[in-house]
UniProtKB/TrEMBL annotation:
Superkingdom classification of source: Eukaryota
Name this polypeptide is given: Uncharacterized protein
């Protein structure tokens, strides 16, 4: 029985190590993707707020600029 357990442990160990390494690499890549996704979201919110501020600025024409300067 002990022999069987040792054999199974020896067979499983390299597979588990490989799996853990692949999982760690996947998790690191996912963390990097989430970090950049968050930055992209923050930048898009900032751009949206700037567009809204631009829309609040009154639009002027050439005639109204000339009238103001008189």
């Amino acid at each position: 029985m002990k022999n069987l357990a040792d054999t199974q442990l020896k067979a499983r160990k390299p597979i588990e190590d490989t799996l853990n390494g692949k999982f760690k690499a996947w998790k690191d890549k996912k963390d990097i993707d989430n970090k950049y996704r968050q930055r992209q979201f923050e930048n898009s919110k900032e751009i949206e707020s700037l567009y809204l501020r631009m829309d609040e600025i009154p639009k002027t024409t050439k005639n109204s600029v000339k009238e103001v300067s008189k």
